[in-house]
Amino acid sequence: MNRLFDLSFRFKLPLWGSFLIVATALAVSGALMLRAYDDLKEDLLISSKSLGRTLSKSLFRAMLHDDVWRAFELVQAPFHGEAGDNPVQPDGIIVLDRSYRIVVSSRPTVMPMLADFRRFGPEQAALADAIEALQGRDAHTVELPDAGHLYVVVPIADEAALLGALVISHSKSAFVPRFWRTAQSGALIGLLVLAVLLPANWYWGRRMAAPLVKLADHLDGLGQGLPEDLDPGLYAYRDELGRLFQSYRRMVQELREKAQLERRVVQTERLAAVGRLAAGIAHEINNPLGGMLTAIDTLKCHADADPLTLKTIDLIERGLVQVKETVAALLVEARLKSRDLAKQDIEDVRTLVAPASHRKRLKTAWCNDLPDSLPLPATLVRQIFINLLLNAIQAANEDGDVGCLIEFDANELAITVTNDGRLLTTEQMEHLFEPFSPLSESGHGLGLWVTYQIVHQLGGRISAKVKENLMVFEVRLPVGAEA
Fold first, then answer.
1. How many CB atoms lie within 10 A of CB 5?
2. Which residue would you say has higher pLDDT here, 384 or 146?
3. N or C end: fewer C-beta atoms under 10 angstroms in the chain?
């Protein structure tokens, strides 16, 4: 039994619905068949009593005058013509006197005149006892246990005298064929109803169960990662089940926002830790590095060295200068004094990166909605913009597309840069803003790191995402906040 309840709703709902439909159909059909049987039996008895009352009046006069032939004609009259399948047709009619002797019968060869009615068998004896027990002068129905006939007994009497009884018998099997025809018609209608309701039940049962099965499958995967979205059209109604799906969609949205927030927090903490480590190392390197460069300058000014030595000293100096520039890139300082950002600064950056764009034959979509001036440090914003554009140009395909959009809205400066180059995975983008990123195809991989540091020191935020087969970098800087 438990296995039945453990079945999937895809089968359990249609099966239970089918069981209820079939049980209801059988119960209704059975009740209707019993009602039809009772109605048919009642109609038969009513007709038989009416016939008996009519005959008893005529038989009273015939018996009063000892007119046996007239009495015989009267009991034979209902049998004239073809009975067909009329269940009201009597099986036999018998006239008894007060001593329960047969006066006349519709079958005189079986039940001859003046014979004692009780002698024809136990059923006839029991019927005679039942007639004797009846009181009153109205028609009565007698149904004996285990008897194959129904009897209608009508007294043959008037207000002054009781001459005998008229017994009309009906075989119980006489109206069974008509009952079965009625039952067959009802069964056929019931089958037609089942033929309509059962497929409809399976359709709606499976249609209601399918969303529940999908929901259960999605919930089973909660411990293995973020659940997937459900198709909004899977169940578009607003009943309790629809509210359950809405709650699931809200839960998925909140879980994704939570996971995204956790990733941003972890990434921010990791980058901040790396930044502090890099800045500390840079500060430690700067002091001996400055001393070495000073020593080399002194050596070049005062040493009387041969050309090979001087060439070696120049090589060492260039290497130390490169180290100094790399270390300087790690020391991002946003609190430097700078003029306000002007619209022309953005146009200057466009001019600066134009040669690199032309070399790759890129198509650049450019939109600069910046006002004349904004209270943001121009030097740092230019650095952010240059780094993002050069990164996009470097990543874009040959003859590809680079997009640039600068907007000012709701006290925020929004910079959006897109390219059609290689799309990064979510895992790769988690390490995109780290220093010396392995994703950089050329250079030291500090451009996006420096950009990230400047953006966060200015109180803004930077993000990278894939949208419509494009890599999209978006920076938002609050305008008017202290740097």
1. 7
2. 384
3. N
For 251-275, what is each residue's pLDDT tens digit? Answer: 888 887 887 777 777 666 766 666 6
Q: How far apart are CA 101 and CA 122, in angstroms?
A: 16
Of 383, 475, 397, which Cα lies nearest the Cα of 441?
397
This prediction has a pTM of 0.42
pLDDT of residue 334: 46
User: Does the pLDDT value for residue 199 go beyond 80?
Assistant: yes
CATH of domain 2-179: 3.30.450.20
**What does the angle CA 45 – CA 99 – CA 68 come to, to the nearest 5 degrees?**
75
pLDDT of residue 94: 92
What is d(CA 282, CA 275) in angstroms, rounded to the nearest whole number? 10
Task: Place 88 in a pLDDT band, splitting at 50, 70 and 90.
Answer: low
